[in-house]
Write a structure and sequence with these properties.
Butyryl-CoA Dehydrogenase, subunit A, domain 2; Butyryl-CoA Dehydrogenase, subunit A, domain 3; alpha+beta; 3 domains; 401 residues; 7 strands
């Protein structure tokens, strides 16, 4: 028995903590992987992978069982994101962005009849939700909105310059931030759920990018109209703190970790072939080790965050604590940087074959896709917005948590 067989045997004997959605995610990943190159080359939406997500009932997985969903947890969804990230980054990110909006509705519907009915539809019809949080010159400043909700009797109207709505034309519904009213401060926001029939999108900015091409993150002029019950009953500041940012950090981070895992596996297979053919240890093994180290640290960080989230979810007010919010915020920053470092190391491990656009050893697409990670809700903006918060958090005096 060689060393690889020994290690694989030991790992096979270890108890694995697997999500009940793993098999479904793997089924979708097979479809996503088969079309990933065409999606990337043509900057097109991954229709085949979306159909597979619907077939596996994964779009409505987080909806409570009582409303027709599967009651999936944040950890379940993070695992799906990780598996999809290894196959097609665009598919994985679309799924993650959809679930970020889903969890905001699920956590904060306030027993509103319209919202409850909408969640039933999310599960029954496997609706795809898009997000509109960037606006005008604000870019990724999701905590400020210029466009206000305008109340008209029992209805409202909303018009906003939505500079980026990922897969907006393909979505079944749109979840958008807005200023509470024309007199409100830009930071006094609400979250609005719009069904397809409630809004029109006029394209304003195209999507010609280095990577993540299949997300089709086009800019639009958005005009919407709905009934007041479509406005979430909880203020957006609470939704942002307790649900949106934790979901963003953990779900997006899991996508990026999946991209890094896929790149690492391609590098590992390539170097194993080189070792088998030459009988020597390839020089790229040094970089493969760096890729693995970064990926291990990233997975550990995400798992720790998921553990802490499960504790805090029992008492949502804990999410408001300064140290918790800072940790969630920095998770997005650290996860994006670690994923990028891991993919870059995997590319260097394979050398020129990793740099090429073609061939089984290519990690070019993975690098192009993961380069978006520090820019989605820009890390510089995040770190700048932390202000003096790091000065207020005491240094841990023990290794114990």
């Amino acid at each position: 028995m060689n060393i690889h067989q020994s290690v694989n045997g030991l790992l096979g004997d270890m108890p694995q903590k697997r999500s009940p959605f793993t098999k479904s995610a793997q089924n979708v990943a097979v479809v996503a992987r088969a079309h990933a190159e065409h999606v990337d080359q043509n900057s097109r939406f991954p229709h085949e992978a979306l159909a597979a997500l619907r077939d596996e009932k994964l779009l409505g997985a987080m909806v409570p069982v009582a409303l027709g969903g599967a009651g999936a947890t944040m950890r379940d969804i993070a695992e799906v994101c990780y598996i999809l990230g290894q196959a097609c980054a665009s598919t994985a990110m679309i799924f993650a962005m959809h679930q970020v909006k889903a969890v905001c509705i699920i956590d904060h519907h306030g027993d509103n009849a319209w919202q409850l009915a909408f969640m039933r539809r999310m599960a029954a019809e496997q609706l795809l939700l898009a997000s509109s949080t960037t606006e005008g010159q604000n870019g990724g400043d999701v905590r400020n909105s210029a466009a206000p909700v305008v109340v008209d009797g029992h209805d409202f109207t909303l018009e906003r310059a939505a500079t980026c709505i990922s897969y907006g034309e393909q979505a079944d519904a749109l979840v958008t931030t807005a200023r509470r009213n024309a007199a409100a401060a830009t930071s006094d926001q609400v979250l609005v759920v719009l069904e397809k029939a409630d809004y029109t999108l006029t394209p304003t900015v195209g999507w010609t990018t280095l990577g993540m091409r299949g997300t089709c993150s086009v800019g639009f002029s958005l005009k919407g109209r709905g009934q007041l019950d479509q406005i979430m009953p909880v203020d957006y500041a609470t939704i942002h703190t307790q649900s949106m940012m934790p979901a963003v950090s953990m779900m997006w981070g899991s996508v990026w970790a999946g991209i890094a895992a896929g790149a690492h596996e391609r590098a590992r297979r390539h170097l194993r072939k080189l070792a088998a053919s030459s009988g020597t240890v390839p020089s790229g093994v040094m970089w493969l080790n760096r890729a693995a180290t970064n990926l291990t640290a990233l997975r550990a960080m995400l798992n720790q965050a998921l553990d802490q989230y499960e504790i805090n979810a029992r008492a949502p007010e804990m999410m408001n604590q300064l140290d918790v919010q800072t940790a969630i915020t920095l998770l997005k920053v650290d996860a994006s940087e670690l994923a990028l470092a891991s993919v870059m190391a995997s590319l260097r491990a394979n050398g020129l074959p990793g740099y090429r656009e073609d061939g089984e050893a290519s990690n070019a697409r993975a690098l192009r896709d993961v380069l978006s990670a520090p820019l989605m809700i820009n890390n510089d903006r995040i770190l700048g917005n932390l202000g003096i918060a790091p000065l207020m958090i005491e240094t841990a005096g023990s290794l114990a948590t």
